[in-house]
Amino acid sequence: MCGAAKLARMIQPDSPRLLAHPPFVRFWMARLTGVLSNQMLMLAVAWQMYDLTSSAWDLGLVGLFQFVPALMMTLPAGHLADRLHRGRIFACCMLAQALVAALLVASTQGDATTRGLILSLSVVLGMARAFQMPAQQALTPVLVPQALLQRAISVSSIGMQMAIVGGPALGGVLYGAGASTVYGTCLLLSLVSVAFTLTVHYSHVPAQRAATLASVFAGVAFVWRRQVLLGAMSLDLFAVLLGGATALLPIYARDILHTGPQGLGLLRAAPAVGALLMTLLLVRFPLQRHAGHKLLGAVAVFGLATLVFGLSDSFLVSLLALAVTGAADSISVVTRLTLMQLDTPDEMRGRVSAVNSIFIGASNQLGEFESGATAALLGPVGSVVLGGVGTVLIAAAWLRLFPALARRDRLS
Questions:
Q1: CA-CA distance, 15 to 148, in Å (whole number)?
Q2: CB 3.0-4.6 Å disulfide test: which of 43, 263, 375, 400 passes with 171?
Q3: How far is residue 41's CA from residue 22's CA, in Å, rounded to a whole number?
């Protein structure tokens, strides 16, 4: 703990105050191990799927099969996050992830892993994600005082980026010993996440109102009436939907940059390296003024860096471009989540977080499908370049469509 306090003091003189809240620290560890497991799992699944089928379309289907169940279940999941203990919901999601990893260990060792099995387990991961995202986003604000909220979100983002850096890199190395080695490690880490989460306690007051259709959709109505929240969430949706190239990284690694699973691990980790460095800066120097314009500018930079990655045939240039996308995305994530938590009362946070999860899920999983589908038509380079140009145009359009977001000055 002393080492953690020393590190926190180096980043931000007041950050050690977060260590005075043990539930936040334990949940930070739970998210760190859970995301580490998930990143390793997704890398191994993507590489194994491409080894099985050599199809960009199938790589896109992995994202689509996660997105559809998440889309259908996220709003009810947000309602549950406002009624039930959010930590226990998160623990159940990690347990489902552990089950998926265990099944993949068994199928890989038995030489029974098929395209259909991977797509079926992708549905399970999508369902788990539907409940995980609202619960984890709504839990952090009740574990720390409001004065520490922006810093807590930034520190949480640091933990996630550390996992997103380490997960693919470690997964790529372990894949050399076989896919079952990666899946076994994911199983262990998911169970560790469950154990940490079960030690997180907070004062939970169950909602007394009866569940109705209107209450389930209350988060949608809340976001729709607030231009700043709607603009920030939809901006992220379209930027990542168009500009995300994650699903095509196995193609770039093997066919364009001519590297193996280890190179794929580095490519997947590169955005997180950039995001981690930027988040460290945001913790040390939080956004004080012109938050809206900085958010829109960051999305434009994300699109330009995606364009550079799409055109590059140099492994080093590709790594640097992906790192820039991660740094730009980090500004977007911290700004959007801070706005969402500050502008939302606690009794609505689960449902508003569910709406945000739909936007995130659509941008990530549906974006993977969009990348795979356009790559099947235009080739991987054409798909990524088109997405980068589209992201820059989206940032310019949102400047005019959501003037309240552009004018937002302070994150308070």
A1: 8
A2: 43
A3: 29
